[in-house]
Amino acid sequence: MSRGALVARVAVVAAAALALTVVVWPEDDTHGGHGGRVDAKPGATASPTPIYPLSSPPRTIPAVARHEPARGPGFRPVATTRVVVATGSEALTDEGQLLAGELSAEYAQGAAPRPGDIELALTPTKQAAPESYTLTARDRTVKITGPDEAGVFYGTRTLKQALRGGGVMPEGTVEDKPDRPQRGLNLDIARKPFTAAWIEARLREMADLKMNQLGLHFSDDQGFRIESASHPEVVSRDHLSKREVERIVALARRLHIEVVPEIDSPGHLGAVLKAHPDLELKDATGKVTKGAVDIADPAAAKLVDDLLREYADLFPGAYWHLGGDEYLALMAKDPEAAYPGLAAAAQAKYGAKGDIQDLATGWLNDRAATLRPFGKTFKAWNDGYFKGTHVAPDPAREVEYWTGKELGARPPEEYLAEGRRTVNLNDEYLYYVLGEPNDFKYPTGRRIYQEWTPLVLRGTTPVPARYSDQILGARLAVWCDYADAQTQDQVAKGIRMPLRALAQKLWDPRTPALEWEAFKELADKLG
Fold it and tell me: pTM for the whole thing?
């Protein structure tokens, strides 16, 4: 919104507020007095004193967790508005400069705030929750504080939305924090190449919704989409350069979003194996198994590890997604009979009782070991964890639960009962699959908003509430099985309301105060 448009909107709202003001006149004979003393000079005009109604919470997506109302005019930007970063809070420079640019306001550091200003300050305390913030609108100023930069940033998003939607930040105090620590979008750029500009636009959209995680699935059977120096032969024609990725990651960090990369293995490696057919998995008849690498071949591990090491510094965040799903050798009716080479390798490595599930579990453990010197925390899809294996998967690895439809599917309660931390990518609600294959339907914001909570990990039934603390959050997943089914713009439009509904339910999983149509109307107003 331009500064002129914002000022015009403020004027309209101000006029409306004035119309609701109760005017209290000094007690004299002219205005209903009873003969009491009048000190005003003859001919003087009494000034009305406004009494404001109690404020209402700002209208934002996601809605704020708590608002303490107050009487007052609220905050509206004026021509002299500045965004001021308090002394000692210089770490908030990026947040302050971003907000100043969005509001066409001046930026200042260490200055004393004055009426019309917005002050940002860090107030670290042991009691404050990560990503929380306090926003106070009083005496025509706003102050946003929080224990960390992310919390203060989310306070600026609340202010930005309040001004965009109604021209005013209501008087009072907002105390706000997210219900879940992981909130985001998963994007398949392997099957369908998305431009860097499109991805950056999604990052800005996510940031305004207080989302903090972008999963980037950039390797699959159909494509490998990031420039490589160690193995340029595996890279698809349409791909992102490393410089583009660096810009994406840098923007994400400024917006308090972590990019979580995924090179899926040991399945979904078709694009890599196209350049290395000698590493393809073959069954007992010699037939190639699509997209599957031969995990008994040390050369396969070396190839994947080369790629993992190459990209570890390109994605400096805490998380790395190992994949692990849909390894076709384990989807056979009798894996050991269908793949005797893998069965023999498992027994050679793990003893007579070793099987292909052990070999696949060990494969993911070994890939994690390759990246562990880079300080990563690991994720893998739920069908990459097997029951009763002799080789134990890393207990710290997070389960990304997406489906319960695979052969030998394990209900989410099993992972939770093992003490595993879980992230929700329920394919019933959160899978946006281009072309809608295999009975998938494009998710709707309405269903997420009205039916889903973080506890609904599989199908439509929630897991017991006692597991709530182990469910870290959720991501909406865009999968491009039929890449040409939608354009980039159509994808952006299609995920718009599901993203907003998901943002609301991850910030506060309770039944929302707004009905769906009112929520949708608010989303349209906020842009």
Answer: 0.90
